[in-house]
Amino acid sequence: MKRVLFFFTLAFLSVFSVSFGHAQSLYLVELISKADKPVLSQEAVNQIQKEHLAHIRELNNAGVLLAAGPFEGGGGLFILQCNTIDEARDAVSSDPAVKASRFDFALTPYNATKGFICQVHESAEMVSLVFVKITPASGRRDDFQVQKVHRDFMAKNIEAVKVVYEGWNSSIADGFLVISGSDVAGVESLFSKHPLKASGSLDISVKGLWIADGAFCE
Fold first, then answer.
1. Three-class SS of residue 23?
2. In sequence order, which residues have a C-beta less than 8 Å from that of residue 147 and are 6 or more positions away?
3. 24: DSSP letter
4. What percent of the chain has pLDDT over 70?
5. Which of 3, 16, 5 is closest to 116 using CA atoms?
6. 41 to each of 47, 75, 121, 148, how far by Cα in Å?
7. Which domain holds residue 149?
């Protein structure tokens, strides 16, 4: 499913760059719409959006921003490459939309274990994918049994979903997946059957993600 999208409270340029030969780390940024964000005039919102886009251009031109796109229902995703987590945090916290209290954010370092990020043109169409975030419960992050059960679940369902990109933090049960297609309900139904979700050992969230066509080298 492809379409060109114009965003009101969250607008992203679909511009990506990949740097090679640098010992930089990757960071997943989840922008989270604030429920208590200030009530602003349309003029003020438009100005913040304009400054937000300018900031994205700056990050892209600096080789910091690799990918960006909004989640269905609000918020969005950045993928950054930076030398340190403090550098990544500064890149996000200096975003005008964050400074204006429109968004909170969660920042997670990760290693890419499948897929690649490709450079695409700024005018590329946006496509709908599915984003799955997997977070172990407190005290289970480095639990080998959690990792094993999760690996077994993914192996049994490898034909059910097409994973185009994935990244993991400290363990194979602490990361995220980007899945081809727009069937959020279907993916959510599949992961609702994950044995560790029912037991509370894993928190699994599923969202629709809009991103530039070809950003994950499909």
1. coil
2. 171, 172, 173
3. P
4. 89
5. 16
6. 10, 20, 32, 51
7. 127-211
